[in-house]
Amino acid sequence: MTKTKTSFATLLLFLILAVSTGAQSVPKSLPRSTPEVEGVSSEAISSFLAAAAKSKHEFHSIMVLRHGKVVAEGWWDPYGPELRHTLYSCSKSFTATAVGFAVSEGRLSVNDKVVSFFPEYLPDSISPFLAELTVKHLLSMTVGQEPDPSFSVASRDSNWLKGFLNTPILYQPGTRFLYNSLATYMAGAIVQKVTGQSLVDYLKPRLFEPLGIEGMDWETEPMGRNVGGWGLRVRTEDMAKFAQLFLQKGKWEGRQILPEAWVEEATTMKILQKPDIAQAQRDKDDWAQGYCYQMWRSRHNSFRGDGAYGQYMLVLPEQDAVIAITAESSDLQGELDLVWDHLLPAFQKDALPENPVAVNLQKKLSLLALLMVKGSADSPVARDISGKTFDLQPNEENIKSISFGFGQGSCKVVLTTEKDVYPLIFGSGDWAAGVTKRLGPSLVADAKGHFVGLPPPKVVGNYAWMDENILQLKLRYIESPHSELFTCHFDGNRVTVEYESSISFGSKKVVVEGEMK
């Protein structure tokens, strides 16, 4: 009896400790519900998934919230809920929110002149337009520079502040919209200047911790600042939380963590992107509804955070709903059109009757998966090339050699460049998981300091023999939207490698030949 009591007490203590430590390490989740209970049609969500499967868009995750509760969530394998995802320009909405906190604390004003913050980097002659430039102009993308200097400055200069301030301003600030990621960088740099903290550290107690967001990371530029205009990585649920905060006008769990006045200011139109287009065209264009503070107005009286290749934090106030999406798409309007065509009608005023489709929907959501390469697990050629290395001709990817090793249902590949050696593993009929120093494709890969501040990329690989002589290797960078495809054609002691990056959507292929050592 005593032994039983002691065992029970020990077990109870273990459970208490497990719960208490888990509470510190596991991010707090949003409440869950079912679609019909919250007045959402399971059939409409199911139709969205069917349409997505037939579309040219590659979805990685989706989360649908109604009345503050998650009613549908899914990740296309090998993506998963625990993974961060590169946000690209959705990062901008977080940067603007950092400005909002700084404004609420009296550290700066949106009417402050940009030249007042970094006098040491100003040009010798300050133009009237530069003197007039304010934080508000940075936030609303109305700087007046043309063309957008972001990529030229970020790839050319180690001092992005100086590069931005020395770029001519051709039009009066506030009068013309031009998307300008370096303007967001400047807004973030100003926050970091007045607070003495990185954007991540400044936002932690104000935004991330109250929302239960953990594990985020953010790229830094050559001088050590968080980039601001891109480079933040968080989970899909974190994106949904951020959008839900704005839907709730800055209130979270009964506490006003972001001033309601700032939410209103940050989500109302500051300028029309395309003032001269016909109304019929505007009615179809989610990029012509007006720009706010690092957020876009959308059709159906909604607004959104918006990132390259289809990352969305969509807020629908009239429906009391939020939709978070990660993806890789070349047609961002087409991706949003799927939302409007299938998900918008899903939201009904009142709760709906129980629907058998709801059970099927949950099964569909749990079985979402991206296609692997198709073919055989083995080929007679595999034995001939296993353990062998092929020297490659000079190529754009700077890969000097490639070697192969087969065994136990996997293919081990080693890519060698002048700078480093990259071992990779690919599974047959499954994704083999790993970590690599190879940085992978990125829209901003040419920016100085790109990927600095981030850990080595997580990857998964899959391989198959398309025929006896053709080996295909798919490598996914699963904390980004992107992937790589290597198609290797073997002919005796020779190999021809075709390399494609998903970032080019098949428009560019690098072909290089090699010979066995």
Biggest sheet features: 9 strands, mixed, barrel
CATH homologous superfamily label of the largest domain: DD-peptidase/beta-lactamase superfamily
Number of domains: 2
Please state the structural category.
Answer: alpha+beta
Our estimate of the beta-strand percent is 15-25%
Instruction: Give the spatial strand order of the biggest sheet.
Output: 12-13-14-15-17-18-19-20-21
Q: State the separation between the terminal residues, measured CA to CA.
A: 73 Å
Helix content: 25-40%
| Uncertain residue ranges | 1-26
Question: What do these coordinates show?
Answer:
- With 517 residues, this protein is of the alpha+beta class.
- The protein folds into two domains: 328 residues, Beta-lactamase (3-Layer(aba) Sandwich); 137 residues, Calycin beta-barrel core domain (Lipocalin, Beta Barrel).
- 30% of the residues lie in helices and 24% in strands.
- It contains 15 helices and 21 strands.
- The strands form four sheets. A nine-stranded mixed beta barrel has the order 12-13-14-15-17-18-19-20-21.
- Strand 1 and strand 2 form a beta hairpin.
- The radius of gyration is 25 Å and the shape is globular.
